[in-house]
Design brief:
Elements (H helix, E strand, L loop, with lengths): L8 H13 L2 H15 L4 E8 L4 E7 L10 E3 L4 H8 L4 E3 L2 H7 L3 H6 L4 E9 L2 E10 L6 H12 L2 H6 L1
Helix pairs in contact: 1-2, 2-6
């Protein structure tokens, strides 16, 4: 597991170049590798928001055996949904207890060695298009990680607009 390197203008230029020339999956893979390097993770997923159903659908997963592409989660009337989807704020479950309170699939999450999760909204024009989800060991995420996550998530907007 890597992580904790600086996010550079070269990183941003590289992901912007992939966005300009490639497809969504290439962009998601590039974001995965970048987040691994600058934050660190043991699971990285990208979800699309289905506003009418108040569900999120997995478009990308770094672990398709545990979290396959296409899987959906209901987020209606949840604390997570209010924070991420309604307010557009970053949600961080810092400890296993936080993870257990926020996620019904916490047993699977824990089986992957995950003890904290950061969910970053991907938005445009006041709408939430999706989320970028970064998971790691307990007490991993810092305020700087949230800032890095917001920057990278913003670069995923074109792919989610075209999804």
């Amino acid at each position: 597991m890597a992580g904790r390197q600086n996010l550079t203008t070269e990183d941003l230029a590289a992901i912007a170049a992939v966005s300009a020339r490639g497809g969504a999956q290439e962009l998601y893979r590039t974001a995965d590798a970048l987040i691994q390097r600058v934050i660190g993770h043991n699971l990285f997923t990208i979800m699309r928001v289905h506003e009418a159903a108040q569900e999120v659908e997995r478009l990308y997963s770094s672990n398709t055996a545990a979290y396959p592409v296409g899987g959906r989660k209901q987020k209606k009337d949840t604390h997570w949904g209010r924070v991420v989807l309604e307010e557009g704020a970053v949600f961080v479950a810092r400890s296993p207890a936080d993870v257990k309170r926020a996620f019904a699939d916490h047993e699977l999450i824990f089986s992957l060695g995950i003890g904290s999760i950061m969910n970053v909204p991907i938005g445009f024009g006041g709408r939430r298009l999706g989320t970028m989800n970064v998971s790691n060991k307990a007490n991993w995420f810092t305020p700087e990680d949230e800032t890095k996550g917001r920057i990278v998530a913003a670069l995923l907007v074109p792919a989610l607009l075209s999804a």
